[in-house]
Amino acid sequence: MTCCDQDTGLTLGERVVFNGLNSEEMFSSEITPLPELAPGEILVKVRLASICMSDVYTVTGQRIEPTPSVLGHEAVVEVIAHRRPESDLIKGDRLTFSIADSCNKCEFCLKGLQQKCSKLFKYGHAKLSDGSGFNGCYASHIIIRHGTHVVKIPGIISDRCAAPINCSLGTTMCAMEFVPKIKNGRAFVQ
Q: At 8, is the pLDDT very low, low, confident or very high (cuts 50, 70, 90)?
């Protein structure tokens, strides 16, 4: 497979759509065409998705997210095709990915605060119309955006161990990086 090979034989994907708490049908399942990849994007198949507490908070009304959306940002995925000519990704690679895509150009990104990016895109927290429509892990496939960091998962690590790592490890690493910088203050890490 070359980086630009999109002849995957796949034309349809399935997604579980969260329609909102006050909808007649809170969740619906849709089979819909997979979009063509833009430069820098990766089409991946979801191997295993896990449930983050932020998803639970969303469906119980403790957190408000735009709807309709595809929830879920913790997963192990498998490369189907990509348009990242500079990468060494091949079909079948198992990956995890950063839960957010940032511009790396705005004031916040330049200060190392990508999670506060002025153009922040968060997987599993975006409306269907914001991006490909395959934005969350509770779907058969995800389109990973151009600026999203991906990490290959070694074969020694199971899908069950790796699925929550992009959120839990990212949260832990952020705390470890920023807590020591707090002077004359307190931090609570849960």
A: low
pLDDT digits (tens, 9 = 90+) for 55-91: 999 999 999 999 999 999 999 999 999 999 999 999 9
Domain spans in the chain, listed from the N-terminal domain onward = 12-181
Hunting for tokens 């895509």 — which residue is that? Answer: 101
Q: What is the pTM of this model?
A: 0.86
Structural tokens at position 99: 């839960």
Looking at every residue in the chain, the average pLDDT score rounds to: 89
CA atoms within 13 A on the CB side of 45: 13
Tell me how far CA of residue 99 lies from CA of 95, 105, 156, in angstroms. Answer: 12, 18, 23
- Look at the block and give the residue holding tokens 């009304």: 61
The dihedral sign for the CA sequence 151, 137, 48, 5: negative
> What does the alpha-carbon distance between residue 68 and residue 125 come to, in Å, rounded to a whole number?
10
Which superfamily does CATH assign the domain made up of 12-181 to? Answer: Medium-chain alcohol dehydrogenases, catalytic domain (3.90.180.10)
